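step: validate -> pass
step: tokenize input -> pass
step: predict -> running
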Amino acid sequence: YAPRCVYMAEASAPPSAAEEAKQSGTAAFKAGRFDDAVAHFTTAIEADPQSHVLFSNRSAAYAKLEQYKASLLDANQCIKLAPTWAKGHSRRGAAYVGLRNWRQAIVAYEEGLTHEPDSAVMKEALVSIQLKLSGAAAEQMQQQRGPPPGVPAVPAAAGGGLSPLTLLLTLVYFVPLLGAARRDLCYRGALWAAAATCLLSLSRSWPLSMATLKDARLWKCDDMQRLHLSPPLPISPPYL
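step: predict -> pass
step: emit ->
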């Protein structure tokens, strides 16, 4: 009976200090107490500094606290300990997203997909980043790098070209085929048509979300600059 007694004693042994701290950190994370989660995961790491999972968990907790540099450092350590574990690369990508380093985030997610090609989380993250990188920059990156595995390429931005309606109204304005009295109407119509074209281009190039409105690059892009000029111009009389 001695072996059986030894087995039962081992089965009922309390969890290690690292495992106990990990469980406390996981519970705190699920409860939204991210500061406590970081503290518990730190205790667990001190007890087991070779656990890549612990660094991954603390990286996620730091990201929730918007401490993205600390999150990136933990993600890098996680990858160092387990280079082929896809979640470590996903943590690195999320940290780079928080730091608004879109290109490095793409590199991280693409590397993660080489280890876990079916990861829906990383695929969705890549698509979201590519939508942010609208216009020629995104198109150039896709041409140079090619689409990541399993992720469809994002179409290039529509641009702020003139619509056929705008060109027609402009032509009628400069060549008064409908008479001089209608020139003013054509002038205003051409400007409103140009504004509508810019709005359509923006809707195709940028995701419709509050995060987009907070993105400084949106307000500096060519379509938005053209749109800023559109409302006052139809109110003012034409010069010709």
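step: describe -> Residues 183-205 form the longest helix (23 residues).
step: cleanup -> pass
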